[in-house]
Amino acid sequence: MPATYVERLAAFVATSEAQTLSEPVREKLRACLLFNLSVGFAAPQADAIRVSLEALHAAPGDAVCWRTGARLAPADAAFRNAALISARGQNDTHAAMNGHIGCVAIPAVFALAESVDANAGDVCAALACAYDVAPLIAQPAAMQSGERGFRGTSLYGVFAAAAGAARVLRLDTSQCAAALSIASQFCGGTMQCWAEGTPEWLMQVGIASYAGVVAALLAQGGMAGARFALEGPNGFYRAFAGAVPDWQWNGEATSEIENVTFKPFPGCTINQMPVKTLLDCKHREGFDAADVERLTLALHPAYAGYPGIDRHGPFDSAASAIMSAPYMLQCALENDTLTLADFAPGSGAPSLHASSRRISVVADEALAPFHCWIDIGLRDGRAIRALSDAPSALSYSFDRTVSLTETVSKEWRTPDSRSAHASLLRQVVDLCSNEASRRRFSEVIEVGNFSTSS
Question: What is the per-residue pLDDT across 67-122, written as a single tens digit (0 to 9) for each?
C-alpha cells in the first residue's frame, strides 16, 4: 500500500540526523535561532492580555519560560515563549507558506529538549525538520487557504512544531505519522483579527506551538491518527484549501530554511519589503518626508487585499498599527526606521497619520508575491518609481543577522545587553556545531540566563 502524505513526512522526520545537515543549513539555523531568541527577549512588557494568556498556561514542569525563568510543563512553556517571540510583530518568514516558522517551532523543540534532556544534535535535526515540513505541506495550498481567510502561521505552523517535537523525542516512523496527523486537528486561526485590530493573533501562535508539543506527546503515549489526515476526502487539504494537491516531493530534505527571511523592523511581513524599498529610494534620490506629495504602493493582489494592509490611523490597538502599510511607510519616511514604540496603542502624532492618508495601496496582478513597486510624487514635480528587490534580499546572512540582533538586543531588559548578546551568540554557534552534537542541550545553551521581568 503506498505511503500516505503524513507517512512520507514521518519517514523523513524519524530518520533525520544532525550530521547530514549541510553547512549552509547549519549557518541559517544559527541565524534563525539568534534572530528568534533575540526578538523574544526584546518583547514588550506583558500587558493585561498576555498576563491572562500566561495565567491559563501555567502547569509546573521542567521547561523554562524565557525572561521570567519560570519552569512549566513543556506545552505551556512553548505557548508562552511562542507568544513572546511574536509579541513585537518581528518574526522570521517563509514566503511560500505565508507565515512564520521559528516562533512556533523553536519554543516547542526547546521546551521538550529541556524536559527530556535531549542532546544538541537532536535539537538541530528537529529544527531543520520543522523548517522543511511546514513549507512542504503549505506550498501547494497556502494561497488557496489564505483566500479562505486562514492565517498561514496558525494553519501550517502546527505541523512545524509537531515535526520538531516528534524528532526531539526520537519518535519512530509510525509515531511521527501519528503526531503529524493529530496536529492537523489543531489547525485553524483566521485573519479577521487583522481586519478589526484585535489581539487573537498572539494566541494563534502560542496555540500552534502548544499543539505541536501535545500532538507529539500523545503520539508517544500511543494515540493513533488518521493515515489520510492530509489528503483524505474529509482531510486537511479539502477542508482548508478546497482541493488535494499532488505532491512531487521525493522524500529528501529540501533545505527550506535557506529560504527564510527576517523582518528588519517590527510590523507586518507584507510591509517589510515596501519599507526597505522606500528607504532605499529615499536615500538614493535624496528626498525627505516633507518633499512627498503622494505615494502609491502596489502589491500582489493577495497582499494588497490582506486584512488591515490598506488601513489608515489613528489606531487604538497595536494589531491595527502593525498591519497598516500607509502607517509603516509614513513612519519610515519621517524617522528612517521603525521601532516597537511606533506600534503602541495611540502612537503616532496626528500630523503623521494625516500625512499617511496621502499613501494608497493598489493591487497589481503582474507582481509576484512579496514584490512591490512604489510611485512617489514629489512637490518639485518629480515622479519616481521605486522597484523592490526580490524577497531574498531579506534572507540575511549570519553576519547580517548578528548586526540586526545586536540592534534588537538594546531593547532587552538586561543591565549589559552587549555582553548578553555576545553570550547568546556564542551559545547559538556552539549549539549548531558538529562538535556539540552529542552534548546535552542544557549544557550548550541556557536561555534562562537571559531571564528578566516579563
Answer: 888 999 999 999 999 999 999 999 999 998 989 999 999 999 999 999 999 999 99
Q: Return the axis-axis angle of helices 173-183 and 200-220, rounded to nearest 10°.
A: 150
Q: Exposed, middle or buried: residue 143 (CB in 10 Å: 0-12, 13-18, 19+)?
A: middle
- CATH 3.30.1330.120 range(s) for the chain read 269-392
| Beta carbons within 10 angstroms of residue 337's beta carbon | 13
Q: Judge whether residue 453 has pLDDT over 70.
A: no
In one-letter notation, the amino acid at residue 82 is A
Neighbours of 256 (CB within 10 A): 23
3-state SS class at 1: coil
Architecture of domain 269-392: 2-Layer Sandwich (3.30)
Q: How far is CA 127 from CA 107, 123, 200, 433, in A?
A: 10, 6, 26, 14
Alpha helices in 42-141 (DSSP H): 48-55, 74-86, 102-116, 120-138
How much is the pLDDT for 47? 87
Topology of domain 5-260+396-450, CATH: 2-methylcitrate dehydratase PrpD (1.10.4100)
